[in-house]
Design a protein that fits this description.
The protein contains eleven helices and two strands; from the N terminus they run αααββαααααααα. It has helices spanning 11-24, 36-43, 47-60, 80-86, 93-115, 118-121, 124-136, 141-151, 155-168, 179-193, 196-213, and strands at residues 63-66, 70-73. With 216 residues, the chain is mainly alpha-helical. The protein is 65% helix and 4% strand. A hairpin with a 3-residue loop joins strand 1 (63-66) and strand 2 (70-73).
């Protein structure tokens, strides 16, 4: 049985290995890259991990999938946003902090936008998330934050946020639990009521809680 490690390598690790492989094999814009199955075998990771990395690279404009043909290396230089991000040196310690700070700016801007718009505050999704918390005792972290970004109706912000989420490695893929549920419940209630200061304070507590997990 193949020894894959779906949880041992993060997004950036996979992207870096893909970059090295593309360079070593001389793959150029317009050339086909190995299939998801082949990449999983060569990189010794689960296919779901490769799939997530490829999806992110496609959002960045670095690759393109052609139905029935496969995945090809794109000419990323024609994408201005991608050009900026692709030259961002993630090896520098401050770079990771910059990415996290930028992600937080987008998330707080989403909260402020929703609080200031009655229609967005009254979207049924917020009550739905509160109901899920009450009934299931948990909710996926990413569902909460993604719905807030989506509610702004800013597709560019959503794409940028998705990329920043991957780069900053924030554990949004986990479910809420314990005292975190109370924080999230407070955030959602203040969001519905349009209390922007209280909502931002609850968000700050939530992020502090999430970041504190890495220090335990």
């Amino acid at each position: 049985m193949q020894n894959t490690k779906p949880s041992s390598k993060m997004f950036l690790d996979i992207v870096d290995e893909l970059r090295l492989m593309i360079k070593a094999e001389g793959i150029k814009a317009g050339d086909k890259i190995p299939s998801e199955r082949v990449l999983a075998e060569r990189l010794q990771v689960g296919r779901s991990t490769v799939r997530e990395a490829l999806r992110s690279l496609e959002l960045l404009g670095l690759i393109e999938t052609r139905r029935g043909e496969g995945t090809y290396l794109a000419d990323f230089k024609k994408h201005q946003l991608v050009e900026v991000l692709s030259t961002f040196d993630m090896q520098q310690p401050k770079s990771a902090l910059d990415v996290t700070d930028t992600r937080i700016i987008h998330e707080k801007a989403a909260i402020q936008t929703i609080c200031g718009d009655e229609l967005k505050r009254n979207l049924p999704v917020w009550e739905g998330l509160l109901m899920k918390l009450d009934e299931d005792g948990e909710v996926l972290r990413e569902d909460i934050m993604r719905e807030m970004i989506v509610a702004t109706d800013n597709r560019l912000s959503l794409k940028i946020w998705f990329i920043l989420k991957q780069y900053s490695k924030v554990p949004y893929e986990l479910m809420t639990e314990g005292i975190e549920n109370d924080i999230v419940r407070s955030l959602l209630k203040h969001l519905i009521e349009g209390n922007v200061i209280e909502a931002i304070n609850a968000y700050d507590q939530w992020i502090e809680h999430i970041e504190g997990e890495d220090k335990e």
